[in-house]
Amino acid sequence: MSNSQLTLAAPFTAVLYLLGSWFGAYAISLKLHTTFxxxxxxxxxxxxxxxxxxxxxxxxxxxxxxxxxxLALGSVGLLVIPALFRQLPKSQSFDRWVLIFYxxxxxxxxxxxxxxxxxxxxxxxxxxxxxxxxxxLLGMSINIILNILFAIVLSGCAIKDVIHxxxxxxxxxxxxxxxxxxxxxERSASLPLSSQSYFLVSLDLDHxxxxxxxxxxxxxxxxxxxxxxxxxQDKQPNDLIARFGGxxxxxxxxxxxxxxxxxxxxxxxxxxxxTSFTHYQIKMTASYGLTHIHxxxxxxxxxxxxxxxxxxxxTNGRNRISFDLML
Length: 327
Description:
Layout: H1 3-31, H2 38-58, H3 62-78, H4 81-87, H5 93-119, H6 122-125, H7 134-171, H8 181-188, E1 198-205, H9 208-215, H10 217-233, E2 240-245, E3 248-254, H11 258-274, E4 276-277, E5 282-283, E6 286-293, H12 299-315, E7 321-323
Parallel strand pairs: 6-7
Antiparallel strand pairs: 1-3, 1-6, 2-3, 4-5
């Protein structure tokens, strides 16, 4: 395109550049879980378009248009940079590279503005065709390469997120968002059970069938979700909490000794007794089977022991804790 053709098209092509920068910055803000300053972004874009229109149709100046456009692109991208730097040290893998390449693109917008300011003033003065300028072509080439690399990393990050979500769904119960049976066994396999004092409790809600028969399965599901949230609120960093099916929950947790483990489950029992579920203010109790885990190979045997102890608690009248610990 000739300089005159570029001048006629400048405000319209600038709209695409600026909207792309706006959407990109907003997308990064969503990824960083931070608010985006849409009003400030709009003000920057509106001001840039007004200036670009002036230097296209009133006083045509290619040199100034290039500076204004790149400063505006960089300024819109700059709106999320503070949040980006806060998140960057905590990000991993593809997420980190997405943030790095985004920062490089924003930084390069300002670098291009400086290059245009220092070296491209002669475009207007000497009536040189912009598209034949080696500096402009080099700048465009670097910009294209950075954006291609950013797109590749972004695609990799998107694939990683999809795989993560699929794996998360595979390992978690859809109702309670606790681990399911598969998730429990996979996560427990990586714990240092041979060197720590881990305990396992199996709890089963008492008379839960009566809840479903009386109030319906929707209310029953709300109670199951409420119990899971109660357990999650009391969760410690090393705990593994799972729903094994129906109204049965499993918790694998770390305790100093058997007495501390029993105290933890007594606390669970008290919390459940004091909690009312749904707008019907339904009270629930549970029966508990508590045992000690000696090593990673003991998991399945420990589950069997906990299940036997749970059955014993139900046989002895429910709403009680049965255990085989040496206190």
